[in-house]
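User: Show me a protein chain along with its predicted structure.
Assistant: Here is one chain, sequence first, then structure tokens.
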Amino acid sequence: MFTEAINHDPAITFFQTGHQQSGRPSMGSWLSYGLGSENQNLPSFVVLTSRGKGNSQGLYAKLWSSGFLDSKHQGVLLRSGKDPVLYLKDSDGLDREHRREWLDHLNALNEMNYEQSGDEEIQSRVAQYEMAYRMQMSVPEVVDLGSEPEHIVKMYGPECMNPGTFAANCLLARRLAERGVRFIQLYHQGWDQHGNLPNEMSLQAKDVDQASAALILDLKQRGMLDDTLVIWGGEFGRTSYCQGPFQPDNYGRDHHPRCFSIWMAGGGVKTGQVYGETDDFGYNITRDPVHIHDFHATLLHLMGLDHEQLIYKYQGRRFRLTDVAGQVVPGLII
């Protein structure tokens, strides 16, 4: 793959939204908009974050924002610990029956407001209140990893029982996918290795390798891999030459947008192949380049959507995830 962005913030924003400047909908929001939800008790787009042992680049809510799409398509961040969603529990003295009565009265007021103003966002707010009500029952069950059998825990590794780790998020992602959550995004911070590369990269790899493999094996053994697309990667690559004075145990690499790799599994992609090739120095792509827009077009195609038809009109212009570019890459598709 290749990109134009050379710094973390614009590069990851580009990868997530198809544009280097913030304000546009993320991939997950576009898929929620285009495909809807398969589970009315959980959001269609869920975000999970974890932190590695390396230098952590910034992570911002704009990366899972719905932008100018309806706010119901925004990613819902699940926190680690006992309260994955803030304010999900009822206050002391408010039981389930009274909560329902309170919501009904609030919804009636919102409907009156909608009739007067015609603001579509009011309808979204009503839908989100109702979703929060249903999530009070669904979220505690889905985040209860203690119900997983021992052989699954062994597959993902012992870290999967520690909330907020990458391994725990991989296991939780499988549980969410089982329950029909359309798009699940995992962010693992700590990949900004400008120095101390051998030590920090080995720690990052230890964080993610077993759980990433386990997720694919787990999906496959459950018959879910054929219709679940797994994507793993970052926002750009690293230079093939040393950054700074060379020291055998403390050298680094700078940002490199001209070529980098991601991997994909399941969901209709061809298996057992490497697509594309670089020169001998890993500096330029020499065969089958794939731009960010091409990746987005292919992703939408694999999900059953035409990237040129998935459009939202806003401020007099028709917007799409691939902006005004992008080609589906047939060589990646079964």
